[in-house]
Amino acid sequence: MKKQMKFQKIVCLVNLITAAVAFFFSLGLLTDIYKLLFAVGIPGNKLYKEMQPFNKDLVRRCIIMIVLAASLFVTRTQIRRRYYISNYIMLSASALANLTFSLISIFKILGYRHRFLTEVNFELWRSRLEELPDLPYTESTLWLDLNIAVLSLVIVASLLLVANLVWKIKMMKFEDRLLSGEIKPGDLQSEV
Question: How many domains does the chain have?
Answer without folding.
Answer: 1
